[in-house]
Design a protein that fits this description.
With about 180 residues, the protein is mainly α. It is built from 7 helices and 3 strands. It has a 3-stranded antiparallel sheet with strand order 1-3-2. Helix 2 packs across helix 6 and helix 4 packs across helix 5. The longest helix is centred in the N-terminal third of the chain and has 26 residues. The chain is globular and about 55 Å long.
């Protein structure tokens, strides 16, 4: 692009760096693309933390299967169709995931007492233990990362991530003693 042309904001446009703004990570409040970039970068780190935590506890579980366990842990027993909706997958995909997790002993599948045509999927004790151990490992690694951040940035992070989770309809994670964090 010639230097005489103004730079357009939006997709593909470079956000100002922290040295240009004078503040690390500073972006305009309405710069949704820059915020999406920041979330994508952070999500790469969080996915890596999750993958390491899962591999350390149960190598046989994939990240999507672990997500299924977490959904059951947070929402309780669900009909197979509701579980598929929560995971944003086709019911056939959810069925295959549940089949593998039933075989591994992490969930059970039973007929819904209210409607014999429906199946209910429930987290087993072994599945709950996997969720608890993986979550504890994730919490420990995230705590190490967050502890390296300045205290005022940590406060902003909690506010921003809480709003992000609420906007995505994600229930709060339990705190270390089982109480909600927020």
């Amino acid at each position: 692009m010639p230097e005489s042309e103004p730079r357009r904001a939006g997709r593909g446009a470079r956000s100002q760096t922290s040295t240009e703004t004078g503040r690390a990570g500073a972006v305009a409040p309405d710069d949704v693309d820059a915020m999406a970039d920041a979330v994508l970068t952070a999500s790469r780190l969080l996915v890596a933390v999750s993958a390491r935590s899962i591999a350390a506890v149960a190598e046989v579980i994939t990240l999507p299967q672990f997500r299924l366990l977490v959904v059951l842990e947070g929402r309780g027993p669900l009909k197979l169709t509701a579980l598929a909706d929560q995971l944003a997958v086709n019911p056939s995909t959810a069925t295959r995931m549940v089949d593998r997790l039933v075989s591994a002993g992490f969930v059970s599948r039973e007929t819904n007492p209210a409607s014999r045509r429906e199946l209910m999927v429930t987290l087993s004790r072994a599945g709950a233990e996997v969720v608890a151990e993986v979550t504890a490992r994730r919490r420990a690694e995230i705590t190490r990362i967050v502890s390296r951040m300045p205290p005022d940035t940590r406060h902003d992070l909690v506010r921003a991530l809480t709003a992000f989770a609420e906007a995505g309809d994600e229930p709060p994670a339990p705190g270390p003693a089982g109480a909600p964090l927020f």
